Amino acid sequence: MNIKNQIKDILKKNIFELEDVEISDELELISKGYLESFDIINIISILEIKFNINMPIEEIEMIDFNTVNNIYCLIERIKALE
User: Fold this and answer.
1) C-alpha to C-alpha distances, 46 to 40, 53, nearest whole angstrom
2) 67 contacts 30 by C-beta, under 8 angstroms
3) What pLDDT is recorded for position 1?
4) The dihedral sign for the CA sequence 50, 5, 73, 15
5) Coil, helix or strand at residue 58
6) 67, 34 in Cβ contact below 8 A?
7) Are 48 and 56 spatial neighbours (Cβ–Cβ below 8 Å)?
8) Distance CA 7, CA 64 (A)
9) I need a labelling partner for 8 at 20 to 30 A (CA). Which of 41, 51, 57, 66 fits?
10) Helices (DSSP H) in 1-82: which residue ranges?
11) Residue 18: alpha-carbon gap to chain centroid
């Protein structure tokens, strides 16, 4: 499973509002109200474990979680820093 599909799977399994939603790479997760700050904190910890990365808070902005593409780019950016 590629990284974007893994991200979608994590979102579907952990965000109740996304359970029955077709998640595209560009679905606006925050601006459409699917993700709130508590959800993002939870997703960060899951992503850190799943991808064996450490997300420094100073490297993260809310926009990084607005789409699957943004989350993917965040993961790649963090991996490049490690």
Assistant:
1) 10, 10
2) no
3) 79
4) negative
5) helix
6) no
7) no
8) 13
9) 57
10) 3-14, 37-51, 68-81
11) 13
Is there a contact between 34 and 17 (Cβ–Cβ < 8 Å)?
Answer: yes
Residue 64 CB neighbours (<10 A): 20
> Which domains are seen in the chain, by residue range?
3-81 (1.10.1200.10)
Residue 58: Cβ-neighbour burial (10 angstroms; 0-12, 13-18, 19+): exposed
Query: For every one of its 82 residues, what pLDDT tens digit does the chain have, with 9 covering 90 and above?
Result: 799 999 999 999 999 999 999 999 999 999 999 999 999 999 999 999 999 999 988 889 999 999 999 999 999 999 998 7
The whole-angstrom separation of Cα 56 and Cα 78 is 8
Give 46: exposed, middle or buried? Use CB within 10 Å, 0-12, 13-18, 19+.
middle
